[in-house]
TrEMBL record:
<protein>
    <recommendedName>
        <fullName>Guanylate kinase</fullName>
    </recommendedName>
</protein>
<dbReference type="Pfam" id="PF07931">
    <property type="entry name" value="CPT"/>
</dbReference>
<dbReference type="InterPro" id="IPR027417">
    <property type="entry name" value="P-loop_NTPase"/>
</dbReference>
């Protein structure tokens, strides 16, 4: 059975950094490039059009869609299918519990769910360091993520990581150990 990793957390919690550390550990770990309809940062996304989104929606291939920062971000079935080809393990970044629920329900593979967390002050410091020009919006998203998490007290996580206290390589190694332990090939 295929596997995937879901990284949940507020902006600047370390999702990109830990994904890079995972890819360094094992080439099977690949960042999942969400489909993005809008403007701004393009790196790490598959840029799409409103027409492409409408076609995906018409076929029932949108697993999860969220609108944030004036853009639309999509986890789509064809994108996940492609990311999993050849035994690869996609690392999907999410900041909404409904997204976690929809991906695990509508794309049934062995998902390892990881909660990454940092303080709001850390997000405020890291956001401009990574080149964000909309730190105020990132801080609002941090608040929304905290409220979202509090509204889902029964959420199940295979691992929780405080990224202020845990080095990216250590977090990646811990995630990798869980993936290997849950692998049908282990």
């Amino acid at each position: 059975m295929s596997q995937g990793i879901l990284l949940y957390g507020p902006p600047a919690a370390g999702k990109d950094t830990i994904t890079a550390a995972l890819a360094e550990l094992d080439a099977r770990y690949v960042p999942f490039a969400r489909l993005k309809i809008g403007a701004g940062k393009t790196q790490g996304y598959r840029m799409g059009t409103p027409e492409q989104l409408a076609a995906l929606e018409a076929r029932g291939d949108v697993i999860y869609r969220n609108d944030r920062y004036g853009n639309i971000y999509v986890v789509d079935r064809p994108g996940l299918d492609q990311a999993m080809e050849g035994g690869r393990i996609p690392v999907v970044h999410l900041g909404q519990m409904v997204g976690m629920e929809r991906v695990t329900a509508l794309y049934p593979v062995l998902w390892v769910r990881v909660l990454l967390w940092c303080s709001k002050e850390t997000t405020a410091r890291r956001s401009p360091q990574r080149g964000d020009t909309d730190t105020a919006a990132r801080l609002a998203a941090w608040d929304a993520t905290q409220a979202d998490l509090a509204a889902h007290p029964r959420a199940r996580w295979e691992l929780g990581v405080d990224t202020e206290a845990t080095a990216p390589r250590e977090a990646a190694e811990r995630i990798d150990a869980i993936v290997r332990a849950s692998s049908p090939r282990s």
